[in-house]
Amino acid sequence: MKILMVCLGNICRSPLAEGILRSKLNDKFTIDSAGTGPWHIGKSPDKRSVSVAEKYGIDISTQRARQFSAADFDKFDLIFVMDESNYSDVLAHAKNDDERKKVRLILENRDVPDPYFGEDDGFEEVYRLLEEAADKIAQELESE
Ligand code: 4NP
Prior knowledge:
Elements: E1 2-7, H1 13-24, E2 30-35, H2 47-55, H3 72-75, E3 78-81, H4 84-91, H5 97-100, E4 103-105, H6 121-142
Parallel strand pairs: 1-2, 1-3, 3-4
Helix pairs in contact: 1-6
């Protein structure tokens, strides 16, 4: 089972989502992340994401940002997006209903707020939301 986490820049939210979910699943699961935008390709995660993850025992420092592409629909079984805007950007690349069905908002009824331009405590809130979401995803996948 291959799972992709997607946000805008692939430096704040989706690297955390990738690291947190990986920490909850065994290595039969492949987990990756990508951004819909090109600005940070090849960059390390934002240092505020690296430090909040480290605080909870997760190392995301070796991840490197990449951009989402239509080929990801062939490579991944499930694609989790952080907000409505990521949702429409990703769906715009889908060729058919099978591809569209792979895409889900990571939180059922709200966005994971973009912390990039905010204060450091925004990263703590993002971590908390993603930790809860990853717990649910891991439970669901392991019961399949
Ligand atoms: P992310 O946060 O989508 O959670 O990685 C952002 C990072 C960079 C930018 C926007 C959001 N940016 O505009 O450069």
